[in-house]
Batch of 3 targets.
Target 1
Amino acid sequence: MTREEVMKKLNEIFCNVFDDETIVLTDSTNANDIEDWDSLEQINLIVNIENEFGMMFDMAEVSDLANVGEMADLIMRKQAE
Amino acid sequence: MLKELLYPFDPNYILENKRKIKKTLLGQSDAFIEKKIAILGGYTTAAVKQIMELFLLNNGIKPSFYESEYNKFYEDALFDNPQLEGFGPDIIYVCTSNRNITRYPSLNDDAQALLKNEIEKYQRIWDSLKSRYHCPIIQNNFELPYYRLMGNKEASDVHGKVNFITRLNLLMDEYAQENENFYICDINYLSADYGLKNWSDPFYFHMYKYALNVNAIPYLSFNVANIIKSLFGKNKKGFVLDLDNTLWGGVIGDDGVEGIKVGPEESEGQVYSEFQRYLKEHKQLGIILNIDSKNDYENAIAGLKHPDSELSEDDFVEIKANWEPKDRNFADIANELTLLPESLVFVDDNPAERHIVSEQLKGVAAPELGSAEHYIEVLDRNGFFEVTTLSKDDLKRNEMYKQNIERAKAESSFSNYKDYLLSLDMKGIIKPFEPMYIERISQLSNKSNQFNLTTHRYTVSDIEKIATDENYITLYGKLIDRFGDNGLVSVVIGHIVEGVCDMDLWIMSCRVLKRDLEFAMMDELVKRCKEKGIRKIVGHYYPTAKNNMVKEFYALQGFTKIAEDEKGNTDWEFVISDDYKLKNEVITIQE
């Protein structure tokens, strides 16, 4: 999956989780940009991303993600493993 | 009920789409009962709450929630709590896990004393909640520990964590036996069912402070919601069961009573016997059993009289075995029992029947059963009959309903069967015999007994000959719908004598009854006749013990009866006019 495709899929997951079709993710999107994105939704997002991409993250990997771009980078790295 | 929220559900789908699902549920009905639920948690409970809300809405309960601060279940229960008092809960759910156990015994400890300490802590919680809030309490028991320091000895030694938790759970059960309005949420069973290792995956605790795998939360929430809906009178009251391939293997109309699979002789029969025993066990809980089957009534009863059948005619309150649409029978059953349709669970192996029943009768649960050996798993885990209290009336309920039937025999009307058929999105392939289907065509001619006008049997070589003979018109029919491919399910053979098409065979598999395929076959037959310059079709009906259902088949197709003998054999005639009007309006025929 290319990084572009990863971003597209992430965008779909965000739309589902927040039930908001208007969300458009960029690399710099973070919790401040989406109203309902609190620590609880963070958990929900990680679990759904794991399920959708068929991968499991280590604690260390997901502890300090700053924005969507870093999440996409992490998925790209895991994918290459 | 939303199919997405019936077992077997997809927990990932629910987690990802919970907002959308909630919106759908709220939009479906406005007849919710509103209840206030307090969750006192020993860990993060936000997702437990959110998902529980969906399952409650699906049962007609609209909850509002109070949620304790993180791991403040003990404080919330024992001390004055104006906020909780103001909330005035209808139910309190204490959501704890073995991570909340204060202290496990080490090898030098007095394990008994520690056990007493631990259970007394919980008893203080329950007693305090009871005296302050006077409402039902639901309490998680404990899942087994994630690791076993002493290995197997953990179970038998009083210092082992496995032993400790097992005894703690038994003490909780004792409290439940002695105190009304107190219910155990058995996460010990749930975690075993899910797989303890995955249930207790430490990642979720260290990362998010969930004491269970987030992906397992739908199962926990579902389980709690089932207890709650039971307490608020939303349990189901009975089953409406199909017969063929549901209570026994095979089709009794075709295979005969000696041919159906039930009983200890072989493995498939054993599966159905076990399922029948499972259903029969429900009677002691006052759950009523009914039958809704597309069969001649005599055949249905004959099947229940099978010497190895665990269930007998007497075990059922209502038996509808006829050729009416199943949703209509279902509605009649509910009506005669004076129950709402949604209080009965529809059990049928056929997805198309489940679809029509759950589409036509809103609120009826028609779970996806899977294969026969999983029927028990699916029905059981849905918790339709979750027992919270058992009354003497429950035990007599079967009798009560049997009397009620005698009273109401009003018939309910059904007006949009065609809409249902259209919703199936059916596609038909109707063509002259082709080599690749010869074997199936022969097989179908030998297996079909009910929808079979002449009961002529054909070998493979018979079919091969006919397929290439210019003097025959042959058609096979395949039917595909939104649930999948039904395969080759109808065969028509006519031979041409002096410009007339004389029908030797007309058969159809009962799995596609009432889908209008027979009309599509007729249209195609007429088309082929016209191409050959044939203007007349002659049909025959030869009665057997099993084909009563097609006695009037040719009349339905617009034929005129021209002869009848003393045995009931009838001959029919159809003149093909230039303005023949297509009979099939619901199946798209593919070229």
Target 2
Amino acid sequence: MQKITGDILIEKASALLSSGTVSCVLGWKKGEFGYDVTPAVFSSVEELERDFVYNDFCGANFSKYLVSKTRKLEGKILVFLKPCDTYSFNQLLSEHRFDREKVYAIGIPCEGMVDISKVKATVGEGISSIDTDGDNLLVSTLYDEEPVAVDFKSVLAERCINCKSKKHVAYDELLGEEGDVIENSRFDEVARIEALTPDERFAFWQNELSRCIRCNACRDACPACTCEKCVFDNPASGVENKSPANSFEEKLFHIIRAYHVAGRCTDCGECSRVCPQNIPLHLLNRKFIKDMNEFYGEYQAGEEVGMRAPLVSYTTEDLEPGEALTRRDTDA
Amino acid sequence: MRKCSLDKINLLFAEIAKNAVLYLPVDENDGSAVYKKWEDGTAYSNALNTVRSPKDFFFPQTENLMGFKTLGKTIEVIDTRVEPDDFVIFGVRACDVRSFDILDRVFLSEPVDSFYASRRNHGIIISMACTRPSETCFCKTFGIDPAEPQGDISAWKTETEVFFKSNTAKGENLLTALDGILEDCDNNEVDAQKAKINAVMNRLPLKNLTTDGFGGGKTAEIFDSPKWEELSESCLGCGTCTFVCPTCQCYDIKDFNTGTGVIRFRCWDSCMYSDFTKMAHGNNRNTQKERFRQRFMHKLVYYPENNEEIFSCVGCGRCLSKCPISMNIVKVMKEIGGNKGE
């Protein structure tokens, strides 16, 4: 559960709105069932007090919204950023995607966000409300007389189980205590897949990607995908498609996307969070990150503004072409 | 009313599968359910519903319409149509059964869509009453009763037995063919089941949601509502809601260059996409607000206006659970329609 409450954020946001420091606030709006919060722009203290919420389901990464929300903005927009969001924030600044002067960023601590599908897998359908009690979520359902206690840690989203940082790398103001970059196991699953035979690996991705419905949610939520007009949306491109023309093409979409965000992906995990088909898309990006770490030295996209990404900076220590293959064969 | 014990359900499936391809919801590793072809050993899922709706059986995401091949100076037109085998879909929920009626009004009205019609003719629907509706369910808002699912055959499941009632000649023929496995019975247990379902329906959080403020003739009143701006402001423009929706029916027709010819195929379109209904003169919906509004106006105003006040939402709740930003038709109905549903 979150150590910081929505009330503290509302108080902070209200003060900044009232003083004129910011003209609006990007935050989470409460929904019908507690877990279905929606990103929203708040323009008044009344709206904040009525609808603003911060709870264990505020997973959406707000960084990308700043591209569109700052475009015609008078004054500044207040944005609340969790540690992982700040990496995307910096990366977007490195790419000159929004005007830093138009943003007032408050770093907020995050204890990890809950994956509602894991809660449903535990208690079943029919959730009427969710409260917290110590390290447990108390889930009321239509079918249980008493709320069901669910261990918070057991229902964390995958990206939060493998959280890479509780440290904010960008903010104007920080609420709560600053955290640290954390040791994590996020490359374990990549290593497991790398160890498969090519046929097994192909079968793994074939199975995962065959479920893709080309809703484009992964792309549309991705803070690294900020092209004004995606090539896949452009009828003149010759590759535009709303659904795959064949089973080969549906795989290409995801692989092309992974290449395009290579070196820029901060591993925020939004792609997998939003996928309606639960395809572990983050694994493709993590494979690229893992390779780049091994080939060019440790690199975390978004750690600082203006960093030279490994794929766009040449050094004499760079891996020679073909060496990756040799290494792979040696490892095998 | 006929019934068979749950122990015999696989015998029943095997019998159905002798004469038709049988599809039913099956559990996936990630906890979701998906319609799959039944084979010996396939287990029927207890999930409330599948992520993808059964509209896919009649209106698949992609289908080839025709092909072309150039031979010198002539173009050969290739008929790529494949006549489907007879099939049975088992376990369709009441909401999804209604979605077929909604699609029928689009695809079976003149000019009849022969691809769709052919699949409808070859399919038999066995529905299943809902025993454990979700908080995201609001089928009652659209007059759908999950205790009385329609389709060719209605079914109810208890802890130990499955009950069947035919609604059409096609359904009756199938039940008759299953005589060796089914036995006749009275309505008592099914009535008890219905009472249980109705009791749950009265506890659902969205039980009081109404369609007030929507329907044919409401365009002028709500089209320019300032609330569309706010509702759509964080919409990502992805197609998730439209692709998991059992009633979304917009499609595009495209040509795919195979290198040696052309395949003309139809695929689902989404009003959320930037090139939706793009025409020679350009695009008539240039902002996400306009595209977002289109989806809800279509379901709640335009469709009922053209179809005897039938709404083209069935309250299945898929968009509620799948939208990446949790914006959905319920929030739209509450804001624009002004009913708080409480």
Target 3
Amino acid sequence: MAQRNILAKKQFSIKSFFFQWEWLLVIVFILINVMNANISDYYLNPTLLLDATMTFLDKALLVLPMVFILVLGDIDISVASTIALSSVVMAVLYNLGVPMPVAILFCLLVGTLCGYINGILLTKFKELSAVIVTLSTMIIFRGIAYIILEDQAAGKFPKWFNFLSWGYMGKIPFILIVFVILAIIFGLLLHKTTFGRRIFAMGNNIEACRFSGVQVDKIKVIVFTLTGLMAGVTAIFLTSRMGSTRPNVAMGYELDIIAMAVLGGVSTAGGKGRMIGAILAIFIIGFLRYGLGLINIPAQALLIILGLLLIVSVMIPNLKGRFQTLRKVKS
Amino acid sequence: MTENKVIKQIKGLDIAKFRELGLVIFIIILSLAVQIRNPRFLTLENLNDMLTNTAILGILAVGMMLVIITRGIDLSVGSTIALSGMITALTVSTYPDMNPILAVLLGTLIGLVCGSVVGLLISKVGILPIIASLGFMNIFRGLTFMTSGGKWISAHQMPVSFKAIATSKVLGINTLIVIAIVTYIVAYYFINHTRTGRQIYAVGSNPESAKISGINTDKILWMVYAIMGALSGLAGVLWVSKFASAQGDTAEGYVMNVIAACVLGGVSISGGSGKISGIILGTLLLGILNNALPLMLVSPFWQNAIQGFIILIAVLVNALVKRNITKQNLMRRKI
């Protein structure tokens, strides 16, 4: 009888190593930088490039947990509202005389609570899709932010609070350091721990996971709570960058965040995706925006370019797959 | 024994219908409560206003229902509305003598083209609906800004005949309401009594077996998004005519209202189920909420949260009722 060896580790092959989504992203990233350097003389300036990261990294912080949720096969469109609510709570508390560190703590707490509510609703009502649940909590969270602050703005934060998104450590922006640390933590969590492997397994077949003794509900709640917490963190950095907050802050961020993750090769159908891809996508979109902004491309044209980038990048592997099946059928 | 069975069956039927009945009862109670607070609510004039304001949402909900039945979603609706509204408004401001019916057709055609492109990518290339429509949401929105150069087309630039589309009456009823009713009737006939209409449900409830039984699933998917686009285009013209202004950010975020109307009406996001009667009720409920909360002097800042809570509660109750039905079905089964 023929015996098949099943190795515990995937065999390394050079071909499959270079035929990965991430390499395509690396090529796109290089192309964009070459293009930007050609269209503007000011682009290739290390200080300016580092400064440019400050404008898009606050949003990028939420891409990290969003990858977890997408790998689970779920989606969370309430994140932008969670940002708004926790930001508003923080600002209002501070204006009421609560010391800033405590207000920040409450901001994180509110974010975590919002995420926890999403997670509990989704695990108690398994028949509901995440789209519906987070759609309604999206409206509710933003609604509560409106109840609290109405049409006012709140701000006048202490000086040191601005440091969070405008400050430097040496020559490197503080937010970049935070992002790198968090990206490493989330990357390791997703790819190197049992917890991360279980998330992938749940994304592929949640029933099989349940029967093999994985506590699927617990993991789902943890992932959504983590996303809420990160929404709180994002709210802190965003508020610090803007200097004040309003209930309609971060409107539409959820779709930007999901678009970044998807461009990074994370499938919304679940079970597929790598952290490094999402991180590359964050910088592709960020630098594209910055470079085109330098030569005064209007923001609306940018919308079109970003939309096309998203569609084309998702189209390529799909077309490749269709072509391959076509060839198989013919032969 | 048989009697018992029949009774149980009737009971099961009752519960199956309960969801829509529940929605009806909810709407009646809500209306009565509002009526007590503000007697102006149930006047003919206010009802007419309310229906006129809800008509566009109702038209869009039909298209969205078809899309959701096939397990998809279309996020590009708001942008298509803006694009078709903007191009139509630009056209009528350059050719003020244009027949308003022609303007409506033009807008619908633009929407149809937009929807077909989205549908083509989803059906032929196999991009997930949420991603394809997300990308085109950006693209159409950008195109809207580009065609207008960032400017608004305001009321004084539009001919009177165009603005009259939304204010004119057919048989004493506002044109918007008439268009919505016609859309509902056509859609009802289409999805219940034509072969293609039934195929939409087949594709939604089980794409694999639909394909095996000879249904051209690609064509159905394409068609569904094209219809959604055409209805969005139509809604775009009506929107611009109603508000007498076309802006770059027209209907931004409106797609969530459309999805909410469908979900409230019992259209299942996992595909395969949804009824016209359901979305009528869902749309009506949203319309009443929009109309009644200001009448009850609820602060405008509370309205968002209240609407969200009501949507959430409706969705949760729906889930619980369905659970109950499955449980009863299991109990009825002989072991």
